[in-house]
Amino acid sequence: MTLVPTGIWKELQSEAISLDQAFKKYVTKNVDRKMVEELHALASGHPTRLKFLMTKVGDPNRAISVDQMYNMKFNTFMLDGEFARSFGEEIELNSVWLGFGDSGQGKTAFYVKLAKELSQYGRIAYNSLEEGARFSFQKVVKRTGFKDLKGKIVFLHRESIADLVCRAERRKSPQFYFIDSIQYAGLNKAQYIFFKEYMVDFLGKSLIFSSHANGKKPEGKTAEFVMYDADIKIHIDRFRAHVKVSRFGGGEYFDIVPERSKILYDEI
Length: 268
Description:
Elements: H1 6-13, H2 19-25, H3 33-43, H4 47-56, H5 66-71, E1 76-78, H6 81-87, E2 90-92, E3 96-100, H7 107-118, E4 124-128, H8 135-144, E5 153-157, H9 161-169, E6 176-180, H10 182-185, H11 189-202, E7 206-211, E8 213-214, E9 217-218, H12 221-229, E10 232-237, E11 240-246, E12 254-255, H13 258-264
Parallel strand pairs: 3-7, 3-10, 4-5, 4-6, 6-7
Antiparallel strand pairs: 1-2, 8-9, 10-11, 11-12
Protein backbone atom coordinates (compact mmCIF):
# COMPACT_ATOMS: atom_id res chain seq x y z
CA MET A 1 0.00 0.00 0.00
CA THR A 2 1.62 3.25 -1.13
CA LEU A 3 0.84 6.06 1.28
CA VAL A 4 2.72 8.85 -0.53
CA PRO A 5 4.14 9.17 -4.07
CA THR A 6 7.22 7.11 -4.92
CA GLY A 7 8.93 10.30 -6.03
CA ILE A 8 9.68 11.00 -2.37
CA TRP A 9 11.58 7.75 -2.15
CA LYS A 10 13.66 8.46 -5.28
CA GLU A 11 14.61 11.97 -4.24
CA LEU A 12 15.41 10.92 -0.68
CA GLN A 13 17.58 8.05 -1.95
CA SER A 14 19.57 10.51 -4.05
CA GLU A 15 19.64 12.92 -1.06
CA ALA A 16 18.35 15.63 -3.37
CA ILE A 17 15.94 16.88 -0.71
CA SER A 18 15.34 16.38 2.99
CA LEU A 19 12.44 14.39 4.42
CA ASP A 20 10.73 17.61 5.48
CA GLN A 21 11.14 19.16 2.03
CA ALA A 22 9.87 16.01 0.36
CA PHE A 23 6.66 15.96 2.36
CA LYS A 24 5.99 19.64 1.68
CA LYS A 25 6.68 19.21 -2.03
CA TYR A 26 4.35 16.24 -2.42
CA VAL A 27 1.33 17.61 -0.56
CA THR A 28 -0.76 17.89 -3.72
CA LYS A 29 -4.38 17.31 -4.66
CA ASN A 30 -3.50 13.63 -5.15
CA VAL A 31 -2.27 13.14 -1.59
CA ASP A 32 -4.28 13.40 1.60
CA ARG A 33 -2.74 16.32 3.51
CA LYS A 34 -3.66 14.98 6.94
CA MET A 35 -2.09 11.59 6.19
CA VAL A 36 1.14 13.23 5.00
CA GLU A 37 1.32 15.41 8.10
CA GLU A 38 0.72 12.40 10.35
CA LEU A 39 3.41 10.40 8.58
CA HIS A 40 5.87 13.24 8.90
CA ALA A 41 5.10 13.59 12.60
CA LEU A 42 5.53 9.84 13.03
CA ALA A 43 8.94 9.73 11.34
CA SER A 44 10.41 13.02 12.51
CA GLY A 45 13.56 12.46 14.55
CA HIS A 46 12.92 8.73 14.85
CA PRO A 47 15.18 6.46 12.73
CA THR A 48 13.13 3.28 13.26
CA ARG A 49 9.92 4.94 12.13
CA LEU A 50 11.68 6.68 9.26
CA LYS A 51 12.98 3.32 8.05
CA PHE A 52 9.43 1.96 8.20
CA LEU A 53 8.12 4.95 6.27
CA MET A 54 10.68 4.35 3.56
CA THR A 55 9.35 0.82 3.09
CA LYS A 56 5.89 2.32 2.50
CA VAL A 57 6.97 4.75 -0.22
CA GLY A 58 9.21 2.31 -2.05
CA ASP A 59 7.98 -0.18 -4.61
CA PRO A 60 5.07 -2.01 -2.91
CA ASN A 61 4.26 -4.15 -5.93
CA ARG A 62 7.61 -5.88 -6.46
CA ALA A 63 6.92 -9.32 -7.89
CA ILE A 64 8.24 -12.43 -6.12
CA SER A 65 9.38 -15.42 -8.18
CA VAL A 66 8.47 -19.03 -7.38
CA ASP A 67 12.05 -19.73 -6.21
CA GLN A 68 12.03 -16.65 -3.98
CA MET A 69 8.71 -17.70 -2.47
CA TYR A 70 9.98 -21.22 -1.80
CA ASN A 71 13.14 -19.90 -0.14
CA MET A 72 11.58 -17.19 2.02
CA LYS A 73 12.31 -17.60 5.73
CA PHE A 74 9.66 -16.96 8.38
CA ASN A 75 9.97 -16.81 12.15
CA THR A 76 7.69 -19.43 13.68
CA PHE A 77 7.14 -21.31 16.92
CA MET A 78 5.58 -24.69 17.66
CA LEU A 79 2.47 -25.23 19.74
CA ASP A 80 1.51 -28.64 21.08
CA GLY A 81 -1.38 -30.39 22.80
CA GLU A 82 -4.79 -28.73 22.89
CA PHE A 83 -3.38 -25.41 21.69
CA ALA A 84 -1.98 -27.03 18.52
CA ARG A 85 -5.23 -28.90 17.88
CA SER A 86 -7.15 -25.62 18.06
CA PHE A 87 -4.84 -22.99 16.54
CA GLY A 88 -2.29 -24.95 14.52
CA GLU A 89 1.03 -26.56 15.24
CA GLU A 90 3.43 -24.09 13.61
CA ILE A 91 2.49 -20.43 14.16
CA GLU A 92 4.08 -17.36 12.63
CA LEU A 93 5.77 -15.27 15.31
CA ASN A 94 4.37 -12.04 13.86
CA SER A 95 0.65 -12.59 13.41
CA VAL A 96 -2.75 -11.13 14.27
CA TRP A 97 -5.31 -12.89 16.48
CA LEU A 98 -8.87 -11.78 17.22
CA GLY A 99 -11.20 -13.32 19.77
CA PHE A 100 -14.73 -11.98 20.22
CA GLY A 101 -17.71 -12.78 22.39
CA ASP A 102 -20.37 -11.36 24.66
CA SER A 103 -19.65 -10.23 28.21
CA GLY A 104 -19.33 -13.04 30.74
CA GLN A 105 -18.50 -15.73 28.18
CA GLY A 106 -14.88 -16.25 29.24
CA LYS A 107 -12.88 -13.88 26.99
CA THR A 108 -10.56 -12.62 29.72
CA ALA A 109 -10.06 -16.13 31.12
CA PHE A 110 -9.17 -17.35 27.62
CA TYR A 111 -6.68 -14.58 26.93
CA VAL A 112 -4.95 -14.95 30.28
CA LYS A 113 -4.63 -18.69 29.62
CA LEU A 114 -3.33 -18.04 26.10
CA ALA A 115 -0.84 -15.47 27.43
CA LYS A 116 0.56 -18.03 29.83
CA GLU A 117 1.01 -20.53 26.98
CA LEU A 118 2.64 -18.01 24.62
CA SER A 119 5.05 -16.82 27.33
CA GLN A 120 7.11 -19.92 26.47
CA TYR A 121 7.93 -18.37 23.09
CA GLY A 122 8.45 -14.71 23.94
CA ARG A 123 7.68 -12.04 26.51
CA ILE A 124 4.07 -10.88 26.88
CA ALA A 125 2.59 -7.39 27.27
CA TYR A 126 -1.05 -7.68 28.37
CA ASN A 127 -2.79 -4.32 27.97
CA SER A 128 -6.08 -4.33 29.86
CA LEU A 129 -7.62 -1.19 28.36
CA GLU A 130 -11.13 -2.14 29.37
CA GLU A 131 -10.90 -3.73 32.80
CA GLY A 132 -7.57 -2.31 33.93
CA ALA A 133 -5.60 -3.53 36.93
CA ARG A 134 -8.69 -4.18 39.05
CA PHE A 135 -9.67 -6.80 41.60
CA SER A 136 -11.73 -8.79 39.06
CA PHE A 137 -8.74 -9.03 36.71
CA GLN A 138 -6.45 -9.99 39.59
CA LYS A 139 -8.75 -12.92 40.39
CA VAL A 140 -8.45 -14.26 36.83
CA VAL A 141 -4.65 -13.90 36.92
CA LYS A 142 -4.39 -15.68 40.27
CA ARG A 143 -6.66 -18.48 39.10
CA THR A 144 -4.48 -19.04 36.02
CA GLY A 145 -1.25 -19.09 38.05
CA PHE A 146 1.40 -16.61 36.92
CA LYS A 147 3.73 -16.55 39.91
CA ASP A 148 6.26 -18.82 38.19
CA LEU A 149 6.35 -16.55 35.12
CA LYS A 150 7.94 -13.45 36.65
CA GLY A 151 9.86 -11.51 34.02
CA LYS A 152 7.95 -13.13 31.16
CA ILE A 153 4.72 -11.15 31.42
CA VAL A 154 4.00 -7.50 32.12
CA PHE A 155 0.44 -6.31 32.78
CA LEU A 156 -0.34 -2.80 31.53
CA HIS A 157 -3.00 -0.61 33.08
CA ARG A 158 -4.88 1.03 30.20
CA GLU A 159 -1.78 1.99 28.21
CA SER A 160 -2.51 4.06 25.11
CA ILE A 161 -1.74 2.68 21.66
CA ALA A 162 0.90 5.40 21.19
CA ASP A 163 2.66 4.34 24.40
CA LEU A 164 2.35 0.69 23.40
CA VAL A 165 4.16 1.45 20.13
CA CYS A 166 6.95 3.19 22.05
CA ARG A 167 7.24 0.14 24.30
CA ALA A 168 7.50 -2.18 21.28
CA GLU A 169 10.34 -0.09 19.81
CA ARG A 170 12.61 -0.67 22.81
CA ARG A 171 15.39 -3.24 22.84
CA LYS A 172 14.31 -6.58 24.31
CA SER A 173 10.67 -5.49 24.14
CA PRO A 174 7.83 -8.06 24.45
CA GLN A 175 6.96 -10.25 21.47
CA PHE A 176 3.22 -10.69 22.06
CA TYR A 177 0.85 -7.74 22.66
CA PHE A 178 -2.61 -8.51 24.05
CA ILE A 179 -5.07 -5.63 23.58
CA ASP A 180 -8.27 -5.92 25.58
CA SER A 181 -10.28 -4.62 23.85
CA ILE A 182 -10.23 -3.36 20.24
CA GLN A 183 -13.22 -1.12 21.08
CA TYR A 184 -11.35 0.59 23.93
CA ALA A 185 -8.24 1.01 21.74
CA GLY A 186 -10.22 3.60 19.76
CA LEU A 187 -8.69 2.76 16.38
CA ASN A 188 -10.45 3.38 13.10
CA LYS A 189 -9.77 1.18 10.05
CA ALA A 190 -6.93 3.32 8.64
CA GLN A 191 -5.25 3.62 12.04
CA TYR A 192 -5.50 -0.13 12.57
CA ILE A 193 -3.87 -0.84 9.18
CA PHE A 194 -0.99 1.51 9.95
CA PHE A 195 -0.61 0.12 13.51
CA LYS A 196 -0.64 -3.48 12.26
CA GLU A 197 1.81 -2.85 9.42
CA TYR A 198 4.26 -1.17 11.80
CA MET A 199 3.93 -3.59 14.71
CA VAL A 200 3.50 -6.89 12.84
CA ASP A 201 5.05 -6.49 9.39
CA PHE A 202 7.91 -4.17 10.35
CA LEU A 203 8.74 -4.77 14.03
CA GLY A 204 7.81 -8.46 13.82
CA LYS A 205 5.45 -8.53 16.81
CA SER A 206 2.17 -10.38 17.34
CA LEU A 207 -1.07 -8.51 18.07
CA ILE A 208 -3.80 -10.37 19.94
CA PHE A 209 -7.09 -8.47 20.14
CA SER A 210 -10.16 -9.07 22.25
CA SER A 211 -13.49 -7.76 20.99
CA HIS A 212 -17.10 -7.35 22.07
CA ALA A 213 -19.61 -9.21 19.94
CA ASN A 214 -22.75 -8.31 18.06
CA GLY A 215 -24.41 -11.68 17.67
CA LYS A 216 -21.87 -13.96 16.02
CA LYS A 217 -19.72 -11.11 14.70
CA PRO A 218 -17.34 -8.63 16.35
CA GLU A 219 -18.94 -5.34 17.34
CA GLY A 220 -18.16 -2.29 15.21
CA LYS A 221 -16.62 -1.62 11.80
CA THR A 222 -13.00 -1.69 12.96
CA ALA A 223 -13.41 -4.96 14.85
CA GLU A 224 -15.17 -6.51 11.87
CA PHE A 225 -12.34 -5.41 9.59
CA VAL A 226 -9.76 -6.87 12.01
CA MET A 227 -11.65 -10.17 11.91
CA TYR A 228 -11.21 -10.39 8.13
CA ASP A 229 -7.55 -9.38 8.45
CA ALA A 230 -6.62 -11.65 11.38
CA ASP A 231 -4.66 -14.87 10.96
CA ILE A 232 -6.61 -16.55 13.75
CA LYS A 233 -10.29 -15.73 14.35
CA ILE A 234 -12.02 -17.07 17.46
CA HIS A 235 -15.62 -16.85 18.69
CA ILE A 236 -15.83 -17.25 22.47
CA ASP A 237 -19.12 -18.54 23.80
CA ARG A 238 -19.99 -20.23 27.12
CA PHE A 239 -16.34 -20.68 28.11
CA ARG A 240 -15.48 -22.39 24.84
CA ALA A 241 -13.28 -20.88 22.11
CA HIS A 242 -14.59 -21.82 18.66
CA VAL A 243 -11.90 -21.41 16.00
CA LYS A 244 -13.67 -19.88 12.99
CA VAL A 245 -10.44 -19.74 10.97
CA SER A 246 -6.76 -20.36 11.63
CA ARG A 247 -4.39 -19.87 8.73
CA PHE A 248 -1.97 -22.18 10.53
CA GLY A 249 -4.19 -25.26 10.83
CA GLY A 250 -5.94 -26.65 13.89
CA GLY A 251 -9.66 -25.95 14.01
CA GLU A 252 -10.87 -27.85 17.07
CA TYR A 253 -12.71 -25.94 19.78
CA PHE A 254 -10.79 -25.04 22.93
CA ASP A 255 -12.41 -25.43 26.34
CA ILE A 256 -11.38 -22.45 28.45
CA VAL A 257 -12.83 -23.78 31.70
CA PRO A 258 -13.82 -27.38 30.83
CA GLU A 259 -15.93 -28.01 33.92
CA ARG A 260 -18.05 -24.95 33.08
CA SER A 261 -18.25 -25.25 29.29
CA LYS A 262 -19.33 -28.92 29.40
CA ILE A 263 -22.18 -28.05 31.75
CA LEU A 264 -23.24 -25.05 29.64
CA TYR A 265 -23.21 -27.18 26.47
CA ASP A 266 -25.20 -29.96 28.20
CA GLU A 267 -22.36 -32.45 27.81
CA ILE A 268 -22.52 -33.66 31.40
